[in-house]
């Protein structure tokens, strides 16, 4: 038998020439969630929805704030989904105690201004109103809150903005406190329309740009605005560049002052 003209390389030679790939990274463990809501249908729906995914799982349920606290101590979840109105200990009352154990995402039908503001003041990492998000948006919001990135759905954001707009006339009046008593009535009557939508229409902002300008005026960062509008931060920056051009402003404070009619 003739020897082969092209002998096969040895295993050692193959090993030396073959590229070595690192082993695949292990999949991240699912995010462990606690669902607190007095409505059993809502709890069951959220549990079925979030436990049926590879990236999230519900480790405990609670019917009120007291049960939520006890379950959080026992299970140490990554994120707590908390309703506002519950019998016994409600969500707002339980919130200061729960945020010491895990990040809290308010998940509720309530979007009254005082409730939203109080929840965020007490440490809630986000505020989602039922009916204003998809499953993927909910999961993304939960993961972001776990990492310290806040999420607020449009209904909650609107509640805060309406409160801001109510405060705007008082803020505008304080800027003109040096007006003499004789000239005050006519000057203030001229000032009031400048705070409303008729004044803002002259800037010719699109609906989306006006929404984002409202969020800027409320003090939100680009990251928070992106979360509230479910768009990327790059898209937010593009909108802000166009807004600043239309308002002839170079800073957020300048744009806010013009938008609120106090510049």
TrEMBL record:
It comes from Streptomyces cinerochromogenes. Residues 20-29 have a biased composition (Pro residues). The keyword Phosphoprotein applies. Residues 32-145 form the Response regulatory domain. Keywords: DNA-binding, Phosphoprotein. The modification 4-aspartylphosphate is found at residue 83. It comes from the Bacteria. Residues 198-263 form the HTH luxR-type domain. Residues 1-29 are annotated as: Disordered. CDD domains: LuxR_C_like, REC_NarL-like. This is Response regulator. The keyword Glycosyltransferase does not apply.
